């Protein structure tokens, strides 16, 4: 079988004709966020409205996340990219009449932030969309996540076709290395080097794992990509398998993401039916299969060795390294582990080339990054921007500013492993190196915005409480140290602590950071340390004088 046969199989020309730019379509965001706001009912009411008005030639498409989740349910009309916010069963009829029949947008319901001067009829002109560059999120909000035909409309599986028929395994790995893509799961390890390491180990069996176990408070990047464009991740996994010599893959997805699991399993079935997954893919000698494994909600299972233990049916706790999973991972075999966002970036890199991707972003952090904007911000939701975009642009241009006209105080990045960035660093470039200089990390992409009413000591206490609850308990520094730090932070919040308690906090932070077995404990002190660094006055104003007897005991 050759590439011409593949194009015949997917009926490429017929599909593109169905997606002509002039063809009217209505897209309803059916990501988890909008569904929780009533998108399912809006979808049904919209279909009824279209039928009652005799407009059956207009296709109504349920999609994944469109971005500004707190404005949902969202409905988008094409051509024109007109997006309406907070649609319900009452106003959908009025929107259809205005947009389709009268051909005059209903301005009162257009996507709009109080930070803007006016709403934009073409949503792509709104800074929320205009300042983004979507690669991992490309086509989310435009494809029906449970129809492989929709994915094929947007060059779906063309990268796999190219890899199988035009590239060797070494060529694929070289392209990924050239792209300078770094793992988007938190550590930022070069993806190409990880692939090359697994490729070099000779073994009768190798595995691919897609890590969809995001557990950071306020993070929903992986969930939204899995819900919105599952075939993109699946295609990335298949290409990875071809590159490193693996024939089996596992998608590890949190049990709290039932919609993501449902849509990814549907993608597996349709990909097998098409012939791009399973035995002898597209008539080649390459075979690859994928199964879903459902996580039980343990934050620590985002760590590679704990995740492997969970897939094997053991308790999800981390193991000392080396050996690393690339050498001895799942069932003792060489294993490649990348997270959802990393896998979603693979197909575009293979199609457009590593050089194209490497020119996006900064000198040391190439490409784009997906962030989950949450907190006191007008447009809370999912965004993707080039590495190096400033925090100010994200908060005020893309995010639409602080809710209620409030003042920006800090942004917390990297979840429980990250830190808080204060106002004076609003112009920091969002990349791996710059965030580390401020005592924070990129992490998987959670970004929580806080206003002037936020209590930074309580923020540190909240994340420490999370780490206490999620510690697997395997090592003493994390099991005991996080609990001690949490109790001391609780004392500060209750205005019962002394300056000696602050000193103990700093000592414990160093001990836990340096002595914990895995990244959960090693990074748990980060929110505490960053708030002490940038908001020390909020600690100092709450401590009580040290009694002489207590000072003598401390000495």
Notes on the structure:
With about 550 residues, the protein is of the alpha/beta class. Helices cover about 45% and strands about 15% of the residues. It is built from 26 helices and 13 strands. The strands form three sheets. The chain has a five-stranded mixed sheet. The protein has a four-stranded mixed sheet with strand order 2-1-3-4, with helices on one face. The chain has a four-stranded parallel sheet with strand order 7-6-5-8, with helices on both faces. α13 links the parallel β6 (about 250-255) and β7 (about 290-295). α20 (about 455-470) packs antiparallel against α24. The protein is globular, with a radius of gyration of 25 Å. About 50% of the residues are buried.
Summarize the biggest pleated sheet.
Answer: 5 strands, mixed
Distance between the termini: 79 Å
The tally of strands reads 13
Global morphology: globular
The fraction of residues in strands falls at 5-15%
Helix content: 40-55%
**What is the subunit organization of this protein?**
single chain
Biggest sheet strand line-up: 10-9-13-11-12
Radius of gyration: 25 Å
Low-pLDDT ranges = none
Number of helices: 26
**What structural class do the secondary elements suggest?**
alpha/beta
Mean pLDDT comes to 91
Keywords for this structure?
555 residues, alpha/beta, five-stranded mixed β-sheet, four-stranded mixed β-sheet, 26 helices, 13% strand
Q: Can you describe this structure in just a few lines?
A:
With 555 residues, the protein is α/β, with parallel strands linked by helices. The protein has helices spanning 3-10, 12-18, 32-36, 39-52, 92-101, 127-130, 148-153, 158-166, 169-179, 191-200, 221-228, 230-244, 258-274, 304-311, 340-344, 346-352, 354-358, 391-398, 432-437, 456-470, 476-493, 499-515, 519-523, 526-534, 536-540, 548-554; strands at residues 25-29, 59-63, 75-78, 82-84, 207-212, 248-254, 289-295, 335-339, 368-375, 381-386, 408-413, 419-422, 446-451.
């Amino acid at each position: 079988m050759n590439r011409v046969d593949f194009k015949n199989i997917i009926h490429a020309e017929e599909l593109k004709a169905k997606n002509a730019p002039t063809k009217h379509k209505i897209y309803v965001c059916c990501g988890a966020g909008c569904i929780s706001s009533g998108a399912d009912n809006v979808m049904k009411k919209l279909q009824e409205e279209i039928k009652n008005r005799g407009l059956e030639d207009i296709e109504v498409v349920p999609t994944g996340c469109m971005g500004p989740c707190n404005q949902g349910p969202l409905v988008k009309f094409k051509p024109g990219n007109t997006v309406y916010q907070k649609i319900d069963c009452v106003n959908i009829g009025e929107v259809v009449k205005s947009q389709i029949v009268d051909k005059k947008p209903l301005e009162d319901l257009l996507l709009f932030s109080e930070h803007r001067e006016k709403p934009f009829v073409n949503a792509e002109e709104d800074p929320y969309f205009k300042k983004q560059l979507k690669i991992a999120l490309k086509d989310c909000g435009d494809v029906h996540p449970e129809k492989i035909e929709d994915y094929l409309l947007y060059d779906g599986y063309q990268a796999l076709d190219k890899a199988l028929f035009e590239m060797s395994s070494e060529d694929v790995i070289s392209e990924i290395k050239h792209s300078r893509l770094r793992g988007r799961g938190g550590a930022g390890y070069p993806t190409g080097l990880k692939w090359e390491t697994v490729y070099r180990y000779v073994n009768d069996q190798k595995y691919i794992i897609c890590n969809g176990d995001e557990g950071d408070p306020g993070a929903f990047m992986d969930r939204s990509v899995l819900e919105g464009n599952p075939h993109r991740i699946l295609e990335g996994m298949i290409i990875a398998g071809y590159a490193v010599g693996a024939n089996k893959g596992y998608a590890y997805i949190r049990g709290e993401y039932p919609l993501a699991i449902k849509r990814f399993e549907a993608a597996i079935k349709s990909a097998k039916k098409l012939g791009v997954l399973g035995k002898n893919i597209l008539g080649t000698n390459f075979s690859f299969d994928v199964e879903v494994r459902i996580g039980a909600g343990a934050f620590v299972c985002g760590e590679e060795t704990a995740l492997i233990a969970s897939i094997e049916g053991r308790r999800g706790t981390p193991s000392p390294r080396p050996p690393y999973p690339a050498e001895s991972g799942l069932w003792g075999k060489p294993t490649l582990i990348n997270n959802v966002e990393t896998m979603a970036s693979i197909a575009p890199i293979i199609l457009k080339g590593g050089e194209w991707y490497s020119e996006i972003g900064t000198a040391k952090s190439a490409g784009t990054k997906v962030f989950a904007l949450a907190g006191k911000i007008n447009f809370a939701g999912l965004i993707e921007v080039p590495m190096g975009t400033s925090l100010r642009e994200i908060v005020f241009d893309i995010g639409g500013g602080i809710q209620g006209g409030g003042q920006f105080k800090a942004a917390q990045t990297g979840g429980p492993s990250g830190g808080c960035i204060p106002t004076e660093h609003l112009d920091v470039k969002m990349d791996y190196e710059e965030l580390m200089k401020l005592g924070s990390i990129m992490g998987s992409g959670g970004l929580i915005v806080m206003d002037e009413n936020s209590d930074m000591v309580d923020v540190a206490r909240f994340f420490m409480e999370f780490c206490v609850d999620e510690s697997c308990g395997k090592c003493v520094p994390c099991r005991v140290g996080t609990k001690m730090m949490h109790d001391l932070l609780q004392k500060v919040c209750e205005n019962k602590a002394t300056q000696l308690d602050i000193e103990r906090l700093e000592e414990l932070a160093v001990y836990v950071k340096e002595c914990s077995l895995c990244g959960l404990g090693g990074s748990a002190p980060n929110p505490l340390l960053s708030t002490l660094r940038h908001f020390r006055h909020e600690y100092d104003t709450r401590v009580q004088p040290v009694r002489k007897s207590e000072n003598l005991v401390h000495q």
